[in-house]
Amino acid sequence: MLVIAGTVSIDPEKREAAVAAALEMMRETLKEAGCISYTFSGDLSDPGGFRIFEEWESQDALDAHFKTPHMAKFQAEMGGFGVRGMDVKRYEVASVGPIGG
């Protein structure tokens, strides 16, 4: 399994448009084969901050995601949100289990 996680910082005045685009992106991405989870969430202390968390079954599924029309649309929209910073990383997960005992 792959995990994509990180943060994006945008112009806070563009937040409403960014939320609308992120919601559409989430809805469409969750329909994709190999997508386990896909979430944008707002940073409670930073009106321009968002967190990204994705889980994918495989690199092939992630590669296919990057070629979708909704990804192309979202990337084009991102240019209008005044992106101030982005730190997103890819993790390969060897095992998953509950926290504790």
What can you see in these coordinates?
This protein is α+β, with helices and mostly antiparallel strands and 101 residues long. The protein has a single domain (2-92), classed as 2-Layer Sandwich (Alpha-Beta Plaits). 32% of the residues lie in helices and 32% in strands. It has 3 helices and 4 strands. The protein has a 4-stranded antiparallel β-sheet with strand order 2-3-1-4, covered by helices on one side. Strand 2 and strand 3 form a beta hairpin. Helix 1 (15-29) packs antiparallel against helix 3. The chain is globular. The two termini are 23 Å apart. The relative contact order is 0.30. The mean pLDDT is 96.
The computed structural class is alpha+beta
Number of helices: 3
Major β-sheet, in short?
Answer: 4 strands, antiparallel
The strand line-up of the biggest sheet is: 2-3-1-4
Strand residue percentage: 25-35%
Domains (count) = 1
Q: How are helices and strands ordered from N to C? A: EHEEHHE
State the shape. Answer: globular
What's the arrangement of secondary structure elements?
Elements lengths: L1 E8 L5 H15 L5 E8 L6 E8 L2 H7 L3 H10 L6 E8 L9
Antiparallel strand pairs: 1-3, 1-4, 2-3
Helix pairs in contact: 1-3
Explain briefly what this protein structure is:
The protein is 32% helix and 32% strand. It is an alpha+beta fold.
